[in-house]
Write a structure and sequence with these properties.
Helix content: 55-70%
Largest sheet: 4 strands, antiparallel
Shape: elongated
Order of helices and strands: HHHEEHHHHEEHHH
CATH superfamily: Outer membrane efflux proteins (OEP)
Number of strands: 4
CATH class: Mainly Alpha
Distance between the termini: 48 Å
Strand content: 5-15%
Oligomer: single chain
């Protein structure tokens, strides 16, 4: 049997280095996150909503502050009397200023509290949008890296299979092997070519998704620096994460604030039975240049000022207040049920994310061991093929298993990093510092 040319590490190394090395002008995860903040419309919408909520709160404050208005008028009248016969045409000019200061309006004060709580709701929505943006960018970032890895491993496998195919053809020509080895190698080569085409298309799609998210054409994410030490979950206690999520998760915060607003709405409805008291001040000037009907031809001017309080006590409104209170109590009960539902869902999501990260870390360790074992198996099969105790398909299968394991290991690493971010998102503690921690694991430009 003609000796098989060993699959040197140079073939695999060159293919992997070409695909995995950081390209020129590559962007880090942190850079793409910052770019997405200025481009992502969902995050910008949440920020605009917060600004609008702040302005609504300012509008509610107006119910406790004084108000003033300026009035002016001009009228002309013609008066005719038959007995005694009198005809007079008069002009009346008026100008006045009125001001009012609420002294006791409990409903207005509650409306202000609701407006301030509305700002808190908008802030929680912005926090949720910010965390969602971090996860979406990270997901798209690692999707591109995973697609690059898949293409690199397929291309490396293609190079290895091509070398195996050439060896099988040479051995067949010299008569040391059957045509079966050559056909098996050709079939495996054709399969890898099809996988390469699919991997190239998948990488193209993943890159387009990342570009659309961050607003950069041709974004090139920096790969992980290997070997990499994946971060551990701290604290390593699912109950602690669940407790944190039930208090800090933005969805829970929104539901809790909604319950507070519903309770305030009940208090505001109950104020329908309470009186209101306002301080009112006015100053008016009335001028008749041509006189009045009683004093024609005499320029007349009247100045009047007034100060007083206006008291209003509702007595009966057709049971509208009572029914409004009943309605708000029902809505308060609904808000309480919604809060509990949100807490349960968040707790379940946090548990799933926590155990997903733990499982992913175990998979990484197992796949690292499998990678070493697959490499040893490939070396043994190549040696057995050279001495005639193994056939070509054995080597091809060992090569396929090695590259599949490498691809799965790379994907598992990305899944652990993403799972860590999603766990913090589920708990409501995801911040830009977590992105910076992952950014430190990337290849430095």
């Amino acid at each position: 049997m003609t000796p098989l040319r060993p699959l040197s590490l140079s073939v695999l190394s060159l293919a992997l280095v070409a695909a995995l090395s950081a390209p020129a002008h590559a962007q880090s995860l942190l850079e793409l996150v910052e770019s997405a903040r200025t481009y992502d419309t969902a995050w910008q919408s949440a920020r605009a909503q917060l600004d609008a909520a702040a302005r609504r709160a300012d509008q509610a404050r107006a119910g406790l502050l004084p108000s003033a208005g300026l009035t002016a008028g001009l009228s002309r009248a013609n008066v005719e009397l038959s007995r005694p016969p009198v005809e007079n045409t008069g002009t009346t000019q008026t100008v006045g200023v009125q001001a009012s200061q609420p002294l006791y309006r409990p409903a207005n004060r509650i409306t202000l509290e609701q407006g301030q709580r509305g700002v808190d709701v908008a802030q929680a929505q912005l926090d949720a949008a910010s965390q969602d943006l971090l996860v979406r960018v990270s997901q798209a970032y690692f999707d591109v890296l995973a697609a690059q890895d898949t293409l690199a491993f397929v291309q490396a496998q293609k190079a290895a299979v091509s070398e195996q195919l050439a060896s099988a053809k040479r051995n067949f020509e010299v008569g040391t092997t059957t045509v079966t080895d050559s056909r098996e190698a050709q079939a495996r080569y054709d399969l890898v070519v099809a996988q390469e085409i699919a991997a190239e298309n998948d990488l193209r799609v993943k890159r387009l998704a990342l570009d659309q998210l961050v607003g950069i054409s041709g974004a090139k994410p920096q790969p992980l620096a290997l070997p990499v030490q994946l971060p551990t979950v701290q604290p390593d206690n699912v109950a602690t994460w669940v407790d944190t999520a039930r208090d800090q998760q933005p969805g829970v915060r929104q539901a809790a604030i909604a319950l507070d607003i519903a309770r305030l709405e009940t208090k505001k409805a109950e104020t329908g039975h309470l009186p209101t008291l306002d301080l009112q001040v006015g100053y008016n000037v009335t001028r008749n240049p041509n006189g009045t009907i009683t004093a024609p031809g005499v320029n007349n001017r009247t100045n009047s000022a007034s100060v007083g309080v206006a008291f209003n006590l509702p007595l009966f409104a057709g049971f509208a207040v009572q029914n409004r209170v009943k309605e708000t109590l029902a809505l308060e009960e609904k808000a309480s049920a919604d809060l509990e539902t949100t807490r349960r869902n968040v707790a379940q999501a946090t548990r799933a994310a926590f155990f997903g990260v733990q499982s992913g870390q175990g998979q990484v360790q197992a796949l690292e061991a499998a990678e070493a074992s697959s490499q040893s198996a490939l070396d043994a099969n190549k040696l057995g093929y050279q001495v005639g105790v193994r056939i070509n398909i054995d080597v091809l299968n060992a090569q396929s298993q090695l590259f599949q394991t490498k691809r799965d290991l790379a994907q598992a690493r990305y899944n652990v990093l993403l799972g860590t971010l999603k766990l913090r998102q589920a708990a409501g503690t995801l911040t830009l510092q977590d992105i910076e921690a992952i950014n430190a694991l990337l290849v430095k430009p």
